[in-house]
């Protein structure tokens, strides 16, 4: 698996940060915020879209206001990949699904109305394999802006001591 690395300049990073903050911003306002003309910022956004860096624009919704009183993380043990994918596709309560390494094969984020609804959804996955469920109490950080990776921004937490 190879990660594509493209060159992103300061303007691209600022454009991505602004669009992740507010995807409904006009190109004229975006240009003002990043100090580029409207045509220049429009062209950069188009290039980021064509390159697949910007995959789409979507509304961020409030689960609670939609009637979902509980959000939970469900860890799903080892089981045949295709069976889990099929069940995820048939379960609209699954809002995010990650195939992971480690003791579990899957980590799912689900949104349900109440505890009986949680039980019904989790039971579907329990039939396949063992599960472990955690209810989300609060989420102090969600949908954080993701900017181009820069190795120079990585700082060690502690200074390593060598014998020299």
UniProtKB/TrEMBL annotation:
<dbReference type="GO" id="GO:0005829">
    <property type="term" value="C:cytosol"/>
</dbReference>
<dbReference type="Pfam" id="PF13404">
    <property type="entry name" value="HTH_AsnC-type"/>
</dbReference>
<dbReference type="GO" id="GO:0043200">
    <property type="term" value="P:response to amino acid"/>
</dbReference>
<dbReference type="GO" id="GO:0043565">
    <property type="term" value="F:sequence-specific DNA binding"/>
</dbReference>
<dbReference type="InterPro" id="IPR019888">
    <property type="entry name" value="Tscrpt_reg_AsnC-like"/>
</dbReference>
<dbReference type="InterPro" id="IPR000485">
    <property type="entry name" value="AsnC-type_HTH_dom"/>
</dbReference>
<dbReference type="InterPro" id="IPR019887">
    <property type="entry name" value="Tscrpt_reg_AsnC/Lrp_C"/>
</dbReference>
<dbReference type="InterPro" id="IPR036390">
    <property type="entry name" value="WH_DNA-bd_sf"/>
</dbReference>
<protein>
    <submittedName>
        <fullName>Lrp/AsnC family transcriptional regulator</fullName>
    </submittedName>
</protein>
<dbReference type="GO" id="GO:0006355">
    <property type="term" value="P:regulation of DNA-templated transcription"/>
</dbReference>
<dbReference type="InterPro" id="IPR011991">
    <property type="entry name" value="ArsR-like_HTH"/>
</dbReference>
<dbReference type="InterPro" id="IPR036388">
    <property type="entry name" value="WH-like_DNA-bd_sf"/>
</dbReference>
<keyword id="KW-0238">DNA-binding</keyword>
<dbReference type="Pfam" id="PF01037">
    <property type="entry name" value="AsnC_trans_reg"/>
</dbReference>
<feature type="domain" description="HTH asnC-type">
    <location>
        <begin position="8"/>
        <end position="69"/>
    </location>
</feature>
<keyword id="KW-0805">Transcription regulation</keyword>
<keyword id="KW-0804">Transcription</keyword>
<dbReference type="InterPro" id="IPR011008">
    <property type="entry name" value="Dimeric_a/b-barrel"/>
</dbReference>
């Amino acid at each position: 698996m190879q990660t594509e690395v493209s060159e992103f300049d300061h303007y691209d990073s600022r454009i991505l940060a602004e669009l992740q903050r507010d995807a409904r911003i006009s190109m004229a306002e975006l240009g003002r915020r990043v100090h580029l003309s409207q045509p220049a910022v429009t062209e950069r956004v188009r290039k980021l879209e064509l390159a697949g860096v910007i995959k789409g624009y979507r509304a961020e919704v409030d689960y609670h206001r939609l009637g979902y009183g509980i959000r939970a993380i469900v860890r799903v043990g080892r089981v045949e990949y295709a069976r889990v994918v099929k069940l995820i596709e048939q379960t609209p309560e699954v809002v995010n699904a990650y195939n992971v390494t480690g003791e579990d094969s899957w980590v799912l984020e689900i949104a349900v109305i109440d505890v009986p609804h949680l039980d019904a959804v989790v039971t579907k996955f329990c039939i396949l394999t063992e599960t472990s469920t955690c209810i989300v109490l609060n989420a102090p950080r969600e949908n954080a802006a993701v900017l181009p990776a820069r190795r120079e921004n990585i700082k060690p937490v502690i200074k390593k001591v060598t014998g020299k």
